[in-house]
Amino acid sequence: MKFNLKLKSGALQFTVFVAVLIALLLSGLMLYAYTFMYMKEQSKGAIENIQFSDTGIEYLLKQQEINTDTLSVDLIKKENQTIKVHLSQWGIFEKAFTITQFRKKVFIKTALIGSLINSEESATLFLQETQNPLTIVGNTSIKGIAYLPSQGVKPGYIAGNSYYGKQLIYGSIKKSALALPQLEKSVIDALVFYLKDYKPLIQGDYINLETNRRIINSFKEKAKCAYLKEPIILENREITGNIIIKSDTLIRIKRTALLKDLILIAPIIEIEDGTMGNFQAIASKKITLGKECKLSYPSALVLFQENKNDKNELSNNTFDNQIFIDSGTIVKGCICYFQTKELADFQAQIVLEKEAKIKGQVYCNGNFELRGTVSGSVYTKQFVANQSGSIFVNHIYNGVIENENIPSIFGGIVLEKEPKTVMKWLY
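and the corresponding structure tokens:
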């Protein structure tokens, strides 16, 4: 028996259509699955880029030496993912740079790094051993851990005023040493380089301060510089970021200038009353900071005098060789005086006037005249008090050093063998 089965053309077309539809659906599902997995992997890679950049910063926090080269580090055991790090000097602080890459996705992170200061455990006062006791007079107050000479601390008497506190030190007392804690060698090398040799290398590194009222340069880019042999007056302009401004004579900052995160270099730096901003000022002769200024964290005023080979190099002018901070001013960051001369003198190298405040760190391997308030830590060779026409050595008159009105952890200048911390994330 024979059966003649014939499929109509419409049925055949329907069968082919269903087969093509199923094939398209399967292809779509496969493409969706592949795309989903790819996007998931890409998203995971982007997240890991951010996480690994933090690993890179942690790696740089443990480094003790500056390396100007960008290094690939073997912190990742994963295909198609790399991490490169770079640690450089930025003024008296360090600049950490990490770049992580997964396939074509790149993430860059930069940070400003300094030595870690724990307000509860670190020294509030470190007074170098000079065989002279610390003498406190008037309404002086010292709260926290104090490292003092072997002769300790005692009350004193100036111009009819004795010491009015209930106890001499509001905290523990420890013995200091014959020298202040040392800075990292890279910090001193950087200061010498900035003051003596630094200049832009190529035309593309220059910026024109006259034609640009608003200048911004990311820390992800190469540093830009403005350099003149003549005085530089900064006014009516906004300058932000990875920028260095240098004069061979003088930099004067007017209150109309808004400066953020840059470095200023000159023999003399003058900052007008009422100035606001955040910057590092590095000078070789003097720095004056006017009344009612507000410099935000992490600012730094640095006076470096390399005069070991010329003991007559210092000026006889009382206002030279000095960082002067006038009344009503608040500085959040570091005030630093470094000298290489060996002869002792009794001129104040850092003067903090009445009602002026420093929230951060003072480092002075000379003489510090404290009339205002330091919240944080003070490292100094000795104090001086200029009162009633006389100079009193290792005396504090109506000065305050305390560790309460500051964050529990913050960063300062980079000291030898001290742990480091991120002071600020850069952009």
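(Above: one complete record from the training split.) The chain has two domains: 9-115, 120-406.
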